[in-house]
Amino acid sequence: MLKEAVSYSITEGESVRIVQITDPHLFADPEAQLLGVNTGKSLAAVLNTIRAVDYPAHLMLATGDLSQDYSAESYQQFVKAVTPVDLPCHYLPGNHDDPRIMYLHMQGEQIFGQQRILAGNWQILMLDSTVRGKPGGNMADSQFELIDKAIAAHPHLHTLLVMHHNPIVVNCTWLDQHCMDNGAEFLVRVAQYPQVKGLLWGHVHQCIDTYHKGPHGNLQLMATPSTCIQFKPLSPYFALDSIQPGYRLLELKADGSINTKVYRVPGNHFSPDNNSSGY
């Protein structure tokens, strides 16, 4: 039985426009820092940039690691921060989140934890790739079942799959230890569906735009920078990048294609401390 979906009325033929933010790593203490970056202030800077751009989005996706310390206050601060953006915000858990505390305190008129979103010609599935107590991920049978049933229920809709963990390795040796451990199987299985057009995730704190060649054409694969610290790409060891926090804009077109671009906070206000510890 499929659980309730959130539905949006989109004009026939209109694109579904999305803002994605990910990995804010908030603390109960608004002045707390992660590796030298105040995560509350960096999230605020990202959200201010989004508002300044004035992209006519229909909704926002928050793809996990909203908290760093599992506190109720960190989730309450997230809700407070995104409310002025005035967009419906759909969230899923990351490996730094406590799903129970998250569910209890991610509350607001425009805050949604449902896994299915119906909008125009698209269906968006918010998948849970987390494994309790582990930094790495796994796509459980229950999530495959959700995908199967959701597509069977709406076979005419294009589908975007959203998760926290990366299903592909990103060629950072230390980080690839914490990817989705059945990512290769996941890609093969979801690529069998012509409805699935793209996969979107966080976790890796860097921008990735690539493709997976499947039996029905290229499957678009997208990873998005964190709203706080960034991991240095292609590094065999843990290393931070000095590039600024960012977010992703997506345009899901009625024909099933996806236009997307990553944007970053201007300036150089959020420089991590490579000598810090605590991630």
Automatic annotation (TrEMBL):
Q: Which cofactor does it need?
A: Fe(2+)
Q: For binding Fe cation 2, which residues are annotated in this chain's numbering? A: D65, N95, H164, H203
Q: Where is the Calcineurin-like phosphoesterase domain?
A: 17-207
Where do the annotations place Fe cation 1 binding?
D23, H25, D65, H205
This protein's UniProt keywords: cAMP, Hydrolase, Iron, Metal-binding, Nucleotide-binding
Catalytic activity line of the entry: 3',5'-cyclic AMP + H2O = AMP + H(+)
EC number(s) of the enzyme?
A: 3.1.4.53
Question: What does the record say about how the cofactor binds?
Answer: Binds 2 Fe(2+) ions per subunit.
> Which parts of the sequence bind AMP?
H25, D65, N95, H96, H205
- Family assignment from sequence similarity: Belongs to the cyclic nucleotide phosphodiesterase class-III family.
Q: What does this protein do?
A: Hydrolyzes cAMP to 5'-AMP. Plays an important regulatory role in modulating the intracellular concentration of cAMP, thereby influencing cAMP-dependent processes.
Name of the protein in question = 3',5'-cyclic adenosine monophosphate phosphodiesterase CpdA
Name the source organism: Shewanella glacialipiscicola
Source gene? cpdA
